[in-house]
Amino acid sequence: MSAAKANLELLPRSLQALLALAFLALALFPLVGTDFYVQSVARMMILAMFAMSLDLLLGVTGLVSLGHAAFFGLAGYALAFLTPAGEPVSLWWTLPAAVAASGLAALVIGFFVVRTHGIYFIMVTMAFAQMVYYLFFDNKWLGGSDGLYVNFKPDAWLFDLDSKLGFYYFTLAMLALVYCFLRRLLWSPFGRVLAGIRVNEHRMRAMGYGTFGYKLAAFTLAGALAGLAGYLYAAQSGFVNPELMGFHASAHAIMMVILGGMGNFAGAIVGAFAFEYLLHWFKDLPQVGAFNLGKHWQLWMGLFIVLVVVFARAGLLGALERLTRRRPAAPVPTEEERTA
Amino acid sequence: MNEVLLSARDITKRFGGLSAVNQVCLDLHQGAIHAVIGPNGAGKSTLTHLLSGDIAPSAGTVTLAGQDVTGWRPERISRAGLGRSYQKTNIFLPFTVWENVRLAAQSRRQRAVRWLSLAGGFADTNERATRALELARLQHRRDAVAGTMSHGEQRQLEIAMSLATAPRVLLLDEPLAGMGTAEAERMVELLLRLKAEHAMMLVEHDMDAVFALADRLTVMVNGQVIASGAPAQVRADPMVQTAYLGEEH
């Protein structure tokens, strides 16, 4: 089977139709959903953007980053610092500034980490993320372990982010924009080079590609996009704390991408939604005797992910694809067979 | 003889106390095939890696098209005009044949990496890739996934990928290894077609192919060159006969 097929790099028509339907459903959801659910879905969309940014590294370039949440959290902190205590701040310059801050941090950290390969890359990305985590955790003036409040939602002309609907549709628009951008990028010369690096970096170098520069560009871009998600996350929740950049946040993003299916961005969205939904579902499990099922949600989540990895290598999106694939029509019996 | 495109002077690679390649001198001329033969462990593959930049030399110099490229990284040497194939097939197995050569061809236009244009839309890249496929006689396999092809076809693809980078110098490390007779014949024909436009180094064990193709022949034993010259002359060298060619020749 080709990588394009195994990775669903090329999304079959059936899946494209399904994604369009899902987008429509998201657009119509606020008409039926209560405030609580509208907010929850907006949060899922934000995490979907975060997961997509990681997929650029994990699924496309083959770089397993275990520190991606650092860039998610940094942009959130940027918003917290840029928002004054008494009034909202304009989104149109704070969003680019926060994204740039995350991108710059990714460029600097990437400069050191993309030289390493395999297990070393995993360890070094984790180490850098832990450094960023403790930088904020241990410094009172950076908010310390309690974090910081974002007193006002940013002011976005056209979208009223203070209203749940305004925020929801702004997030949906961003999700669609990031998805379309990354899908297009995947088939650009740059995207093809990243895929080549995933499959055979050594050969890429022998063909004249300075893979360091490409990987650094991918790492920086992924960090910036994670920043976009982190900015929106901080704006929605109204506060930031070091946990946003913690090890668990990075690990959850990896689980989302693997759960949904790597290397095509659509899977990352599916994975983020599924992960968040399951997380709440598992947490709400009842007490059975002396054992609180809900308290041990990580156990059920872990089991579920193991099952998906074992039985659906291409993740939930791959499983969906198999379900929607048109089966060959049963052979029509011929005249002779029918009369026989 | 034609212009010298690649020249190695006293190139040496030491791994600890062992000299895998010891003071080897070699010139590759435009329009000529220079075969390098020798028993296993003679340092032929290491020599290829030294010339392509996969391994940095301990001593000596490599000049490519008049430029000193000693110690350059492989991607830089590739962009300076050197293409190579590997002893163990080294291609993008999950990609189609077309994507393998297209990606190779794309490497020549990296200055203008456009993020939002489609990779398949660059006429010059497509043209280079198509020409490479035609040269390697693989057009009919364009849409096949590389990993599903026969070993012989994969070897052809590997050479097509080198060609798509428009190299002036080609280093081929055992292109005939593991091939059946018919496949080997096709490969020999392919190499003869490429000869006019390239300076080629051929590391090969198949003596029939070597004597059919080589304009010059170098024999390596234990990392050192023991003979070098016209094939007939090298073949008659008594030292070569005892060291390598043995009774069968």
> What's the total count of β strands of chain B?
10
How many domains of chain B? The number is: 2
Question: Overall 3D geometry of chain B?
Answer: globular
Q: Give the helix level of chain A as a range of percent.
A: over 70%
Largest sheet of chain A: 2 strands, antiparallel
Question: What are the salient characteristics of this protein?
Answer:
heterodimer; A: 340 residues; mainly alpha; ABC transporter involved in vitamin B12 uptake, BtuC; 4 strands; globular; B: 249 residues; alpha/beta; Rossmann fold; 2 domains; 9 helices; 25% strand
Report on the structure:
The complex is a heterodimer of chains A (340) and B (249). Chain A is 70% helix and 2% strand. Chain A is mostly helical. In chain A, strands 1-2 form a two-stranded antiparallel sheet. In chain A, strands 3-4 form a two-stranded antiparallel sheet. Chain B is of the alpha/beta class and 249 residues long. Chain B folds into two domains: 163 residues, P-loop containing nucleotide triphosphate hydrolases (Rossmann fold, 3-Layer(aba) Sandwich), CATH 3.40.50.300; 76 residues, no CATH class. Chain B is built from nine helices and ten strands. In chain B, strand 7, helix 6 and strand 8 form a beta-alpha-beta unit. In chain B, helix 4 packs across helix 5. Chain B starts with a strand and ends with a helix. The chains are: A mainly alpha (340), B alpha/beta (249). The interface between A and B is medium-sized, with 29 and 39 residues.
